[in-house]
Amino acid sequence: MSSISGINREYIPYIPSLESMDEQSFFSAMYEKGIYLDVKFANWFEQYPYTPIVSGFMAFSDKVLAVAFDVVEEHVCAVEMSDNGRVWEDSCVELFIDNPTGEGYYNFEVNAIGTLLAAFRLSRSKAVHFSSEMLGKVRRFCHFEHEPIDIRKQTTWRVALQIPFSLLGVESMPPELRVNLYKCGDKLLQPHFLSWSPIFLDTPNFHCPEYFGTLIAKYE
Question: pTM, whole model, 2 decimals?
Answer without folding.
Answer: 0.96
